[in-house]
Amino acid sequence: MIYGDVNSTKNALTEEKYKLLADTLTAAGFAVESILYHDEGAARLEEELSRFEVILVWVNPIEQGNDRRHLDELLLKLVDQGVFVSTHPEVILKIGTKKVLYTTRHMDWSADIEQYSDYDDFKNRFLISLGNSKIRILKQYRGNGGNGIFKVSLANTDERSIRVVQATAANEARILSPDDFHQEFRKYFDNEGVLLDQEWIPEISNGMVRCYLTGTKVSGFGYQESNALCPHPEEPESGVRPTSRRFYFSEHCGLFQDLRTMMETKWVPELQKIHSIPDEKMPLLWDADFFIKNVNMRDNEQKYILCEINVSCVSPFPESCIRHIVDKLLSISRK
Ligand SMILES: Nc1ncnc2c1ncn2[C@@H]1O[C@H](COP(=O)(O)OP(=O)(O)OP(=O)(O)O)[C@@H](O)[C@H]1O
Ligand SMILES: [Mg+2]
User: Quick one: 35 and 169 in the same domain?
Assistant: First the structure.
């Protein structure tokens, strides 16, 4: 299931991102169909979808201005009817929103993190946090593609001026007064939203590792150099390099075996324990994005810092994930 509006001619079975998975599932004996999701058609889809044994969903948290509220309601009904969905909507709420950065703040993958649960809390505490750290990253509750991810700093010239750069337009800095700044961020508390306030990790310049998982096991890696929220050209520590494409590796890639071991033996079990998620409810395909804070660190526990977790729409993904997904679905359908 992918997003497509009423007039769309998209088909997941022929889209580059899903084609090989669809072909491999077909070869393994599954009958695979493409379903387009859009909010207007959600009510009608329930009956059509209840005939499926498994539904694999790739729909972003923010899609054409809509959120996943209606979709997640629909998926919950289907789960109640016995359909297996790639990620249970309750699990998205537990580990697939930016809140996970706060719920796992005591794990040793965590950067310094604060959470503001309402607008007054944000108004009372954020500028103190900014004053202490000078640069902070604000993240909205649910989002993707750098939407609602901001680097916030005190403008050099005037302590009452706040510089804001969004990860979607990394070179456009805006300077706001404290009042305008607070007003601007008020909307992120609508609909039970929260704001997360993460320390800025300058080692973003080392690139980021995306660790892909199928259930509790690592099934591949991605590596990408990103210029989003890197030093701004006007800032003294300037030096923006272009964003690279993401390079993919299998779970056996020697470069990231320390991360694989850490995830499988420590961090994933801890994540499950904190959120009470049994093995069989872990998402079929998800990823955790890491900064490489200490490149040559021998003590693995301080090498990688969590940037965020994605579970709603993990694509594209490394080819190595496909075998893990197909094996998992075969084991479910045999039960
Ligand atoms: N704490 C931080 N320090 C430095 N850069 C950051 C930080 N947090 C996020 N970034 C930059 O902003 C980008 C977007 O942030 P994040 O991954 O949290 O949001 P997202 O919208 O969910 O992104 P995606 O679409 O990749 O899932 C990151 O890829 C990284 O380049
Ligand atoms: Mg994300």
Answer: no
Question: Mean pLDDT of successive 10-residue segments in the chain (335 residues)?
Answer: 90 95 97 94 88 95 82 94 95 96 97 97 95 93 90 79 85 88 96 94 92 98 85 56 88 96 97 97 97 80 92 96 97 79
Q: Which of 163, 170, 169, 167 is nearest to 184 (CA)?
A: 163
Nearest CA to ligand 1 atom 14: 146
**Mutate-to-test residue for ligand 1 from 62, 68, 142, 149, highest number of ligand atoms within 8 A of CB:** 149
Which position has the token pair 């998926």?
75
Residue nearest to atom 25 of ligand 1 (CA): 145
Out of 229, 292, 314, give the residue to mutate to test ligand 1, the one with the largest number of ligand atoms within 8 Å of its CB: 229
User: What pLDDT shows up at residue 72?
Assistant: 93
Q: Does 79 reside within a domain?
A: yes
166 and 235 belong to one structural domain: no
Model-level pTM?
0.95
66: β partners: 63
From 49, 36, 42, 43, select the one nearest 7 (Cα to Cα).
Answer: 36
Last-in-domain residue among 154, 170, 199: 199
- Atom 9, ligand 1: which residue's CA is nearest? 307
Q: What is the pLDDT of residue 89?
A: 94
Taking a C-beta distance cutoff of 8 angstroms, is the pair 104, 270 a contact?
Answer: yes
Give yes or no: residues 216 and 142 share one domain.
no
